[in-house]
């Protein structure tokens, strides 16, 4: 268990307790005769102001969520495009290396779908976990001995695409850990 998780849980529990206490006190005050008179005198002038503040807070939170969603979509699309580029450029490689490279890319995709995405949903995937299959694919590609110019070009492009896929994966993990700030 991550050391930060108990602290985060304690903060959330305290925050919920605080909200319930404030809500309970406001409800009790509103129910009493004296409180009802105070709310009636207070509310007509303050409701529009409080409504505007609430609307601004909701708008700021929505903008942050939309921005994070757009960044996540971009990271996923970049990773998928880079992996597709690896597959396309692998066509020029000898059969054995092409088969190995495609197998490593397929294993990475299976691991991302079956392990990484569920862990990201539970906010448990960190940058400490390596994309071993992509790293192995990079090593395999760098160790190739190109036989002609097309294979040299393909090798260069595959290394660049694998680097791009690793970077997009890193961005995807970072974005999965983002939260709406407690101030909002």
Describe this entry's structure for a reader.
This protein has helices spanning 4-31, 33-89, 95-121, 132-143, 149-176. The protein is mostly helical. The chain contains five helices and no strands. It is 83% helix and 0% strand. The protein has a domain at 55-176.
The overall pLDDT, averaged over residues, is 84
State the helicity in percent bands.
over 70%
Helix and strand element order: HHHHH
Distance between the termini: 27 Å
Give the overall silhouette.
elongated
| Number of separate helices | 5
How is the secondary structure organized here?
Elements (H helix, E strand, L loop, with lengths): L3 H28 L1 H57 L5 H27 L10 H12 L5 H28 L8
Key terms:
83% helix, 0% strand, mainly alpha, 184 residues
